[in-house]
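User: Hello! I'm new to structural biology and keep hearing that structure can be predicted from sequence alone. Could you demonstrate with Phosphatase PAP2 family protein? Please show me the input and the output so I can see what each looks like.

Assistant: Of course. The first part below is the input, the amino acid sequence of Phosphatase PAP2 family protein. The second part is the output, the predicted structure written as tokens.
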Amino acid sequence: MLTKHFFVVLMCCVFSAPYANAQNKLYKIDQSQETTWSLLKYDINATWHSVKHSFTRPIKWKKKDFTKFGGLIVGTAVLSLADEEAYDFAIRQRDGTPKIVRDFGWYFGNPQNYFIANAGLYGYGLFTKNEKVRRTSVLIISSSVTTGLIQTFAKNGFGRARPSQELGAHYFEPFSKEPGLHSFPSGHTVLSVTMSHAIAKQFENPWVKAGIYTIGAIPPISRLVDGAHWLTDVTFGAILSIVVVDGIDKFLYKNESHNIPYAKPKAISWNISFGPNKVGLVGTF
């Protein structure tokens, strides 16, 4: 189901490629004077180039980029040693977690609801010709296509058993078609963190940011509490989303997408926090 959604979005970008390639990377237009159809074509062009940038960027990686990637892989492997203990801890919190919170976590990270919400956001920006809202939607869509395809291939490629299979945190059956062996990474986490991070980047107020990130953290936490994923499924999915969103956001700013000039935001420092009976991804801003 998730693969089909991303496939449709990606095909929209691919079929627009001839139009996009006929222009500069992100051509400039007077958006206040353009028709709704012209703005739609502009946004498709921006989405196409953003996705293409994401998948071709590794070709230009330097030593420090490979070092960071290696650190992510090693860090995930080390963190996986705590997966089963973290699972036991999360399960013990289930009865104390309000059902409405757990339900919200599932629905917010569900692909259908996710795309309906973003379609509504983009539709508002398109018909009101609001450049900032449209740019935010392009950022969300481009990042979602990128992270969605990566996590879909990873799920199938790794074939990691979900906790419900009772095979342990380190059971893998690569390229399995069984849904119960598609645990890594967490799709709900990828989508919820992608959207929340993309939206939070549009605000300067730290309290607003904190509120948005809190909402975005509900799906990952609910997936742990419901026993649907291991800790590393959620952690890797969150980091992947943050990295992709930041990369595409920088690309759009560099090209002055939607005629919005670059304004250097206050940096957010992301760290994995460990402590007695707790582990988390902490952003300091």
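User: So the tokens describe the shape?

Assistant: Right, they're a compact way of writing down the 3D structure. Reading them back into a model, for example: The two ends are 36 Å apart (CA to CA).
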